[in-house]
Write a structure and sequence with these properties.
- The complex is a heterodimer of chains A (119) and B (116).
- Chain A starts with a strand and ends with a strand.
- Chain A contains no helices and 11 strands.
- In chain A, strands 2, 4, 5, 6, 9, 10 and 11 form a 7-stranded mixed beta sheet that branches. In chain A, strands 1-3-8-7 form a 4-stranded antiparallel beta sheet, with no helix packed on it.
- In chain A, strand 5 and strand 6 form a beta hairpin.
- Chain A is mainly beta.
- Chain B is mostly beta strands and 116 residues long.
- In chain B, the strands form 3 sheets. In chain B, strands 2, 5, 6, 10, 11 and 12 form a 6-stranded mixed beta sheet that branches.
- The chains are: A mainly beta (119), B mainly beta (116).
- The interface between A and B is medium-sized, with 28 and 23 residues.
Chain lengths: 119, 116
């Protein structure tokens, strides 16, 4: 059981280049998330997915796109990288542990992170 | 609007002494509260959560946290700190009545340094 894995671990891009970050989980979780972590700002949600074939915007979605074609995978794409996207990116997943009314009490499981530098 | 604050950037404590990492929150109703820990070059790991029930929540590695509704706080505590507890700690809050989509807010993090 590998949990949540992320590929690649490190990447350096030039401004304007594109790339895709891959997240995979083997826990059969319904929910998956992409966060970015910047010094002094905690984690900010970029996009998330509540199931295969669905995605939704988080707090800071601009400049990113996502896809969830398979339940176990969640891809984060940067079409035209900018220096402001230099960050550490974390993927996470969770069960939907809903209470009555559908609210999730989810505990999130995080991947090891991808350190991206945009020059 | 919901928010979470970790007022201390860093907490220093000697090994064997009790530790407290502070967290305060603001949500419109009864919150869901979480603590996560991040070791160097690793992702966040879940420590504990408060959903409902007993205000004192026990979690992994001997940590516990107390939900205080009147003070809107959820401080993380451990009776006796270990050097291996040195890490970055994140408090997170979720408003269960928020209808605008998924939204768990993370604090900025508090770095815990335990000195031998």
């Amino acid at each position: 059981n590998a949990g949540v894995t992320q590929t690649p671990k490190f990447r350096v891009l030039k401004t304007g280049q594109s790339m895709t970050l891959l997240c995979a989980q083997d826990m059969n979780h319904e929910y998956m998330y992409w966060y970015r972590q910047d010094p002094g700002m905690g984690l900010r949600l970029i996009h998330y997915s509540v199931g295969e074939g669905t995605t939704a915007k988080g707090e800071v979605p601009d400049g990113y796109n996502v896809s969830r074609l398979k339940k176990q995978n969640f891809l984060l794409g940067l079409e035209s990288a900018a220096p402001s996207q230099t960050s550490v990116y974390f993927c996470a997943s969770s069960y939907y542990t809903g209470l009555a009314g559908g609210t999730s009490t989810d505990t999130q499981y995080f991947g090891p992170g991808t350190r991206l530098t945009v020059l | 609007a919901q928010s979470v604050a970790q007022p201390e950037d860093q907490v220093n404590v000697a090994e064997g002494n009790p530790l407290t990492v502070k967290c305060t929150y603001s949500v419109s109703g009864n919150p869901y509260l979480f603590w996560y820990v991040q070791y160097p070059n690793r992702g966040l790991q879940f420590l504990l959560k408060y959903i409902t029930g007993d205000n004192l929540v026990k979690g992994s590695y001997g940590f516990e946290a107390e939900f205080n509704k009147s003070q809107t706080s959820f401080h993380l505590k451990k009776p006796s700190a270990l050097v291996s507890d040195s890490a970055l700690y994140f408090c997170a809050v979720r408003d269960p009545y928020y209808t605008g989509g998924f939204k768990t807010i993370f604090g900025a993090g508090t770095r815990l340094f335990v000195k031998a």
